Amino acid sequence: MASEKSLDDLRQELDRIDDALHDLLMRRTEVVVQVGAVKGIDNAALLRPGREAEILRRLVSRHHGRFPKVSLLRIWREIIGGMIGLQGDVSVAVYMPDRGAGYLELARDHFGVVLPITPFRSAGQVTRTVAEGSATVGIMPMPDREDVEAWWISLMGDSPDLPRIIARLPFSGPGPGRGDGLEALAIGRLAPEPTGYDRSWLALETAPDISRARLRSVLSAAGIEPTMLAATQRTEENWLHLVEVSGHLGADDRRIRRLVELKQPVFHAVVLGGYPVPFSQEDLTD
Ligand SMILES: O=C(O)C(=O)C[C@]1(C(=O)O)C=C[C@@H](O)C=C1
């Protein structure tokens, strides 16, 4: 019976378990170094947010017992962050308008203690730093916030070198120590990969005065389901809209082509990226 084991016996058992966990971690590290060599030296391409999401979802779905899922996720985020740091020169630029704004916390929580993180006062500085390749990832404010500039407009070109939205933070569920309910988007110069449970961001240029209802119906006629109309920028000639939509959209998705085929009311549509849907509170409570 377990109760007959002495404290010493139990602690020895814990030591053996710790050794086994540690051995596996060292073995995992060797395999990740090999994966890094197979993937090559492009630092941006080392990051695979979709693959990371699949790993975490698989672990959460097989998890049982009393260890909290949020702690499980935190450990694995730290492991993945450490592994990314081994594969190449990966760094993070963070929007931090003022001290304690919470974005730094979100970045550390997601990328762990190893990756270098540099704060910037404006969203524009972060997008430029990532576009130039001086940082691999940028942590951006959510575009529906009224207190931030429309940083997403600078990502609207078609060049494959432009940063794309690659993640939404916090990925590992809301909670204390995760920016107090704050959310952010991560950008990087890489193409998001589908994971089976994703959302995408679409920037649209339309004629002025298009209503939200009309925009919704045009999108759904093209087979696109909007989940959030995040922002609109108005000029006299055109309106620019940022829409979050359900599912993964590749840059040349046939639904995008259908959307612009008629030229009315959407002149131009650019997929700004996408992300694996983060864990919700319910996913993580037993
Ligand atoms: O699968 C990969 O491409 C890896 O580099 C391995 C790994 C991991 O630690 O599992 C590390 C970094 C990537 O972002 C995704 C996963």
How would you portray this structure in words?
Pfam families: CM_2. GO terms for molecular function: chorismate mutase activity. Residues 1-91 form the Chorismate mutase domain. InterPro entries: Chorismate_II_sf, CM_dom_sf, CM_II_prokaryot. The chain has 286 residues and is α+β, with helices and mostly antiparallel strands. It has a domain at 198-276: 2-Layer Sandwich (Alpha-Beta Plaits). It has helices at 7-39, 43-46, 49-62, 69-87, 103-111, 123-132, 212-221, 254-261, 281-284, and strands at residues 92-95, 117-120, 137-141, 164-169, 184-188, 198-206, 226-234, 239-246, 266-276. A hairpin with a 4-residue loop joins strand 7 (226-234) and strand 8 (239-246). Helix 1 packs across helix 4. The longest helix is centred in the N-terminal third of the chain and has 33 residues, at 7-39. Prephenic acid is lined by residues 32, 35, 39, 47-48, 51-52, 55, 80, 83-84, 87. Residues 32, 35, 39, 47-48, 51-52, 55, 80, 83-84, 87 line the site of prephenic acid.
